[in-house]
Specification:
The chain is of the alpha/beta class. It is about 55% helix and about 10% strand. It has three domains: about 90 residues, Arginyl tRNA synthetase N-terminal domain (Gyrase A, domain 2), CATH 3.30.1360; about 210 residues, Rossmann fold (3-Layer(aba) Sandwich); about 160 residues, Isoleucyl-tRNA Synthetase, Domain 1 (Orthogonal Bundle), CATH 1.10.730. The strands form five sheets. Strands 7-6-5-11-12 form a five-stranded parallel beta sheet. Strands 1-2-4-3 form a four-stranded antiparallel beta sheet.
Length: about 575
């Protein structure tokens, strides 16, 4: 694979530059394929070798590249070395490249790219990922979809790299909204409706009580009293709250099942209602609490003592807040998991909240607060169903499935399958995930149903279609050809482009592992699918001589394997028929 080739190039460079090969390996990168021209296989930026490149002109850099190229010699691995604009370019022995890449893809299977030298020396860490975090007694809002799929991707990637990952769903199951909901249910709730469609009824009650509370101050007062009773442990209030929580989690588990996502721990703010009192006592003992004129209790984060920046940790009536419970949760998780890193996946509107939580933990003397990280993301605009504004994820999933079933029914090449509903849902989910992951996570984006379901172009449907098509190829011709490959049969430009692209997979995984952005993997898989589609037209398996057919089948099998690996990391279940 790329590792052996990078090391071979690095060893030759190290002799000339008097540098250890290890220091050069990460600077040698596989060259992205080009539609316009044949490209080298590996490239080294000369700038990365120059200690002080601020004063180097382009001519100096090019001259340095040219002189280096003259000193380097071709060997059994590298067949051509040239100087480009500030780069050194290396072409690998074509038959060696073909044999090494195909062999590595098949041998490593799901670990292809993850065993790379780029990840060598990577310490195995204990990582906690908190994601999804819907609010109890509200149907699963579509706004929670991004946190859910992004958190799942991060957990998948960290797990694939060998880290010990704990997936936590920290449910919003405590707070003033339960004062409103409890009061609302006592005023407007119906037992029959709660039993037949629990979360829809609770949502309707919540909307109604909010509306009434804006006009009737007495309702707002009753809500405060209900939540205060909850905090004091009133059995009647707790019993109603527990019922709302149990009904909600039952429905969430069904949604996660449809998404193909699991959690190691279902936690919630309610777990920390008592421990948050311990946090307040600890803050008080360190002299960090101050009372404002309104009676709220705050921690001063200004650094100057002028209260220009504060975080409220207790209301004037003694009830806790989200921040207090998050502090208690972080301390508890450190005790429980002794994590090396804790990642919170939440929208960018929570940025200030997490900054304050991490800052308070540091002020309290917890040095591990630096191991906590917030991964923010933007909002999705314009996600509507045929019925209008979307509020609930279930509506989106149902619409995804029905639209995909219609699309599949209208395509003549659609194969007969045992469970078309399941296939439609998996393809539809791939469409949603790819549209979401194509750009920077921090960016807001405009949702488009039409773009999501295009079977051509850069979509999840296209990825699934490519995977299914390659599965069909293997089914049709079997695996008898795969025992012995004549690599001389894979020297056409289309074959070489695919092999060069497969060579880059470890670099793409490394990049995503560094910045936790799925877009690198998405872009890579879309390019791989386009290359496979072009090759499928020109590199015929049927009616070709046995050694040619076998070599091509081996190449397509390698493409399908890497495509499936990448899709699974993104949280997509590949389909074999559609």
């Amino acid at each position: 694979m790329a590792c052996a080739f990078r090391r071979s190039i690095a060893c030759q460079l190290s002799r000339i530059l008097a540098l250890p090969p290890e220091s050069l390996i990460k600077s040698i990168s596989a060259v992205p394929v080009s539609k316009k021209e044949e490209v080298a296989d590996f490239q080294l930026s000369v700038d990365s070798l120059l200690e002080d490149n601020n004063h180097q002109s382009k001519l100096d850099t090019q001259d340095h590249a040219r002189r280096l190229a003259e000193k380097l010699k071709c060997d059994t691995v590298v067949t051509a070395i040239s100087a480009g604009p500030g780069t050194l370019n290396f072409k690998i022995n074509r038959e060696l490249l073909t044999k090494a890449v195909l062999q590595q893809v098949i041998e490593d299977g799901s670990k292809y790219g993850l065993k790379s030298e780029l990840f060598s020396g990577l310490p195995q860490k204990k990582i906690v990922v908190e994601f999804s975090s819907p609010n109890v007694a509200k149907k699963f809002h579509v706004g929670h979809l991004r946190s859910t799929i992004i958190g799942n991707f991060i957990a998948n990637l960290k797990g694939a790299l060998g880290h010990q990952v704990t997936r936590i769903n920290y449910i919003g199951d405590w707070g003033m909204q339960f004062g409103l909901l409890g009061t609302g249910f006592q005023l407007f709730g119906y037992e029959e409706k709660l039993q037949s469609n629990p979360l829809q009824h609770l949502f309707d009650v919540y909307v109604q009580v909010n509306k009434e509370a804006t006009d009737d101050k007495n309702i707002a007062k009753l809500a405060h009293e209900f939540f205060h009773r909850l905090e004091l442990g009133d059995m009647q209030a707790l019993s109603l709250w527990q019922r709302f929580r149990d009904l909600s989690i039952e429905e969430y588990i069904q949604i996660y099942k449809r998404l193909g996502i699991y959690f190691d721990e279902y936690s919630g703010e309610s777990f920390y209602r008592e421990k948050s009192q311990d946090v307040l006592k600890l803050l008080d003992s360190k002299g960090l609490l101050q009372k404002t004129i309104t009676g709220n209790v705050v921690v001063d984060l200004s650094g100057t003592g002028d209260l220009s920046s504060v975080c409220t940790v207790m209301r004037s009536d003694g009830t806790s807040l989200y921040a207090t419970r998050d502090l208690a949760a972080a301390i508890d998780r450190m005790d429980k998991y002794n994590f090396d890193s804790m990642i919170y996946v939440a929208d960018k509107g929570q940025k200030r909240h997490f900054q304050q939580v991490f800052q308070i933990l540091k002020i309290m003397g917890y040095e591990w607060a630096e191991r906590c990280q917030h991964v923010p993301f933007g909002i999705v605009k314009g996600m509507k169903t045929r019925r209008g504004d979307v509020t609930f994820l279930e509506d989106v999933l149902n619409e995804v499935q029905s639209r995909m079933l219609q699309n599949m029914a209208s395509i003549k090449t659609t194969k007969k399958m045992e469970n078309p509903q399941e296939t439609a849902e998996r393809v539809g989910l791939a469409a949603l995930i790819i549209q979401d992951f194509r750009g920077l996570l921090l960016s807001d984006y405009q949702f488009s149903w039409d773009r999501v379901f295009q079977s051509r172009g850069d979509t999840g449907v296209f990825l699934q279609y490519t995977h299914a098509r390659l599965c069909s190829l293997e089914e049709t011709f079997g695996c008898g050809y795969l025992n012995d490959v004549n690599v001389a049969c894979l020297q056409e430009p289309q074959s070489v482009s695919i092999l060069q692209h497969l060579l880059r997979f470890d670099e793409v995984l490394y990049k995503s592992s560094q910045d936790l952005q799925p877009k690198h993997i998405v872009s890579y898989l879309l390019t791989l699918s386009h290359l496979a589609a072009m090759a499928h037209k020109t590199l015929q398996v049927k009616d070709s001589p046995a050694d040619v057919a076998g070599a091509r089948l081996h190449l397509f099998k390698a493409v399908r394997s890497v495509l499936a690996n990448g899709m699974k990391l993104l949280g997509i279940i590949p389909v074999c028929r559609m």
